[in-house]
Amino acid sequence: MMTEERPVIVIPMGDPAGIGPEITVKALADEKIIETARCVVTGDKGILAEAVRICGTDQKLHEIEDPSEGLYTSGVIDVIDLRNIDPEKFAYGKVSAMCGRAAYEYIEKAVGLAMEGKADAVATTTINKESLRAAGVEGIGHTEIFGRLTGTSDPLTMFELEDLRVLFLSRHVSLRQACDLVTKDRIISYVIRGYEALRQLGIDHPRIAVAGLNPHCGEHGLFGDEEVKEIMPAVKQLQAEGYNAEGPISADAVFWQARQGKYDCVLSMYHDQGHIATKSVDFNRTISITCGMPVLRTSVDHGTAFDIAGTGKADDISMKEAILKAARYAPYFRKQ
Fold it and tell me: Is the full-model pTM beyond 0.70?
C-alpha cells in the first residue's frame, strides 16, 4: 500500500545519448518501485518521451517544478524538465558536449533539491566522461561532482550487493599508485570514516574487515611487507581506539566471510580487488553508494552503453536496485 511515508528519490536522467533515460522509464514502470518511493526525474521531457516510446512502457509524463507537485502513481513519470537538449543536434550513442552539459545540469538540480530538503536521496543513472570533458565540466565522475556540489572534500565510495558492503582505499589510480597508498594513516582514516558512514546508514556498531594487499597477506613478509608495516599496525591502533576492526584478512577469503555475515563491510585495498568480489557474484545488482556527504546518493554501476542506446535493450535491474537501496537507507539518513 502506498503512503506518503514513501521517501522522495530524485533521479538525474543521465547522459541523454546513453541508456540512462531508458533504464529510468523502465524502472519507473515497476509497481514495486512505485510502492516503495516517490520518484521525480530531473531531465529532458522530450528525451524521456522518446524513451517511453522506444521501451513501450506506455507512461505519461507529468511536468512539475517542485517535488511537492508530483503525482507519484502508476503510469506517470513526474519530471522536472530542464529543456537543455536541442533535438536537431541530438544523436544516440555519440560523445557530445551538449549532452555532457545536460547530464551535469540534471545532477546539479537533483543535488540542489536534496540539499534543500525537498528530496530524501539521489539515485543516479549513467554519465559519459568524454561528453562531460567536452562540455568543460569540472570533475568528470559522479563522486567528484557530488563532492564539489555538496562541499565534501573526499567522498567515500561503497559498493553494496545484498548485505555485502565494500569500501575502497583507492579508486581511479594505477595499480602501482594504489600499492603506494596502502599506508597506516590512510587505512585508519578510511576505517573511521567508513564506520561513521555505516552508522549513517543505520548500522549502529559496524564490524569492518581490512583486506590484505598481497597473496596470503604476504606470509609475514615473505612476499610483500605492506601487511606487516602498514595494515597490521593500523588495525591494532583502531582496535585500541575502540573500533571493531579486524585484519589484515586475505582477499581470497574476506569477501566470502563478509557475505556470510561475519562483517558488515570490507575495506578493499584497491579498485579492482573489491569490484571483482562484488561484480562476479552479481554484476547488475552491485550498487554504488557515495558516503560521507550531506546527501544520500546511490547509483547504478555500469556505463552509458552507447552501443545499445536508443534500442530499448538496456536492462533496468541496476537502476531499480539503486532506487530501492536509496529508499531503504533514506529513513536512517533523515535522522542524522
Answer: yes
